[in-house]
Amino acid sequence: MKNNFLIKSFFGLFFVLVSCDEKQVFDEYKEFDGAWKKNHKASFTFEQKDTTGVYNLFLNIRNNNDYPYNNLFVIVSMNQPDGKVLVDTLEYDMAYDDGTLMGTGFSDIKESKLWYKENYSFPKAGKYTIDIEHAVRQTGRVKGLQDLPGVTELGLRIEKR
Fold first, then answer.
1. Which residues make Cβ contacts (< 8 Å) with residue 159, sequence separation at least 6?
2. Torsion angle of C-alpha atoms 59, 142, 67, 102, degrees rounded to 10
3. Distances from the Cα of 113 to the Cαs of 4, 56, 127, 144, 159, in angstroms?
4. Which residues touch 23 (CB under 8 Å, ≥6 apart)?
5. pTM for the structure as a whole
6. What is the pLDDT of residue 1?
7. Nearest 5°: CA angle at 113, between 61 and 111?
8. CA distance 50 to 161
9. Exposed, middle or buried: residue 8 (CB in 10 Å: 0-12, 13-18, 19+)?
């Protein structure tokens, strides 16, 4: 009976600690089937009411050993409630010089939390949509890759600063 209480208490405390993330405002993932296709924009929509707070926005990339490149280029479009669209082209390092993937994780899947916007205040209250597409191309080639292998999921995370 006492062991049963201890086990239940441990798991209860574990779930409370894991689920407590006071900074998180938005956290969502899109899953890819083996490869991130060029024509597949990952789209995230959320309602933002606070225009005075300061936020950090991140792209969370989960990739595996099938990812063949040292870096990742993405084009991120933020569609604001007033119709204005902010577009950023971003580059991230994804592997060390020896080819080992960066990121956290115990298996061959690594997760990288990548900065998108730091200390950002949303200018208007309303619905925002963030579209993300990859812009990776092979060295010496003008045309970008159609399929980017090894990316299993892409997430958007917004944290209150």
1. 23, 24, 25, 55, 56, 57, 58
2. -50
3. 38, 11, 24, 24, 12
4. 159, 160, 161
5. 0.82
6. 52
7. 50
8. 13
9. exposed
**Measured between alpha carbons, how far is 87 from 93 in angstroms, rounded to an integer?**
20
**Residue of 45, 69, 61 lying closest to 112 (CA atoms):** 61
54-109 pLDDT tens trace: 999 999 999 999 999 999 999 999 999 999 999 999 999 999 998 889 999 888 89
Contact between 134 and 38 (Cβ < 8 Å): yes
Give burial (CB, 10 Å; 0-12/13-18/19+) of 141: exposed
pLDDT mean over 10-17: 47
Q: Backbone phi, then psi, for 50, in 5-degree steps?
A: -90, 115
φ, ψ for residue 149, nearest 5 deg: -75, 155
CA–CA gap between residue 28 and residue 30 (Å, rounded) = 7
Both tokens of 106, joined, read 């115990």
Residue spans of the domains in the chain: they are 24-160
The fold of the 24-160 domain, in CATH, is Jelly Rolls (2.60.120)
